[in-house]
Amino acid sequence: MLDALKGLVGSKKALATLAGMIVAAVAKFGFDAPADFVYGLLGLVSAYVVGQGAADWGKEAAAIKKAASDKS
Predict the structure, then answer these.
(1) Which H or E element spans position 64?
(2) CB neighbours of residue 33 within 10 Å
(3) With a cut of 50, which residues of the chain have pLDDT below it?
């Protein structure tokens, strides 16, 4: 369980998602921010998370392929 939490803290996607959730919560319950600003910021966070996921997609496949070739 502790390893999973360490992995989340080190994950750029998780940190960006957490930051987006904090911004949304603060905008809804505390800070009176314009809706356009909040939606724009959340759109940027969403685009970053999707882009980072797309970038990470090929990394795992390459690591598996490299490990398989090292065993041969």
Answers:
(1) helix 35-71
(2) 14
(3) none
Rounded CA separation 68/61 (Å): 11
Distance CA 72, CA 63 (A): 15
CA dihedral 56, 47, 19, 37 (to 10 degrees): 170
The total of other beta-carbon atoms located within 10 Å of residue 36's CB is: 8
- Other C-beta atoms closer than 10 Å to the C-beta of 38 total 17
- SS3 call for 11: coil
Domain regions of the chain by residue span: 2-71
Question: pTM to 2 decimals?
Answer: 0.67
